[in-house]
Amino acid sequence: MKMKRYRIATIPGDGIGPEVMSAAVSVLETLAENRNLALEFVELQAGDKTKAETGVALPEETLRGVEQSDACLFAAVGETAKEVILPLRQGLDLYVNLRPAKVYPNVPHVGGDVDLVIVRENTEGLYRMIGDRGPDWGVSMRVITRRASERIARFAFDLARRERRRRVTCVHKANVLDTTCGLFVETCRNVAAAYPEIEYEEMIVDACAMKLILTPGHFDVLVTTNMFGDILSDEAAGLVGGLGMAPSGNIGEKHAIFEPVHGTAPDIAGRGVANPLAMILSAGMMLEWLGERDAAAAIEEAVIKVLRKGETLTPDLGGSARTEEVAAAVQREL
Ligand code: IPM
Ligand code: MN
């Protein structure tokens, strides 16, 4: 069989970004050695440090580098996040922000048995950042289009079908935001009609936020607009044990960038104790998107084994292991 080759762009960024990135890259290297895979890593610069050095947070060559790769891994950037990840998402038309939240073994969490996926629209809403500011007022424009609503709804239903999930919940605030959320809900409802085997419901965002705490097991696939998805995905991560375990994918037709939901964690940066599992699970999601199903499953299984043994956990999970020790433990399980 011909060896599959992929060019993977990496953006380590700031804070704990480089630490968790090197953990994920070492795991991918071990995985590739054991399989018929060739991964070429191309490191690209972006973030606070890059801005301090070059004057721009997202250099043109980084954007081009991501475009020229088969997929990209992104760790975290600090103050310049909105100058980096938002232009990448919007510029490359990565219209889906896919954020699974599930309970892994030995991870302390508040909720019950949660296994849900948030499908967050990733290109518009308040994140278009169209607005204005006077001395005593500010205004932000929320942009919702039928095209973007339709493709995100389709993605959510196709995912439900593919993963044999039973229900899609459209989360909105159409009772107040009747123009924007009104269009979003109407579009989701139309798309739902083409998937009669999947249960469809609509839920107002505030009620959803509460229900996520009271009955998290109710939820399966949630589809929502950009900012609601931002907020609910942190809430969902909180339900399953925090941001240390939350991976994500920014996915478009041609390109995709996989990133942990957590940020740069300046309080622990440089100490080598950051939990690399969200980054490693994001690398797994990348392999899945590349069509490397078995390799993706192998990563998740290795992570689960490490968690089950419970011997090599970072402090956020109640252990005392270092980032690179967790990466090494995952590599051993591969
Ligand atoms: C996220 C982050 C970003 C967002 C910020 C850092 C721009 O919170 O990926 O969820 O709001 O989307
Ligand atoms: Mn967020």
How would you describe what is shown here?
The protein is of the alpha/beta class. The protein has 2 domains: 1-94 and 247-334, Isopropylmalate Dehydrogenase, CATH 3.40.718.10; 110-239, 3-Layer(aba) Sandwich (Isopropylmalate Dehydrogenase). It contains 11 helices and 12 strands. β6 and β7 (137-143) form a beta hairpin. The longest helix has 18 residues, at 17-34. The chain starts with a strand and ends with a helix. Bound molecules: 3-isopropylmalic acid (IPM) and manganese (II) ion (MN). Manganese (II) ion (MN) binds at residues 230, 234.
Bound molecules: 3-isopropylmalic acid, manganese (II) ion
Structural domains: how many: 2
Give me the secondary-structure category.
alpha/beta
Report the CATH architecture of the largest domain. 3-Layer(aba) Sandwich
Low-confidence stretches: none
What is the terminal-to-terminal distance?
21 Å
Q: Please give the count of helices.
A: 11
Query: What is the CATH third-level topology name of the largest domain?
Result: Isopropylmalate Dehydrogenase
Indicate the mean pLDDT.
Answer: 97
Strand % is 15-25%
Largest sheet descriptor: 10 strands, mixed
CATH superfamily membership of the largest domain, which one?
A: Isopropylmalate Dehydrogenase
Q: Which series of helices and strands comes N to C? A: EHEHHEHEEEEHEHEHEHEEHHH
* Estimated radius of gyration: 20 Å
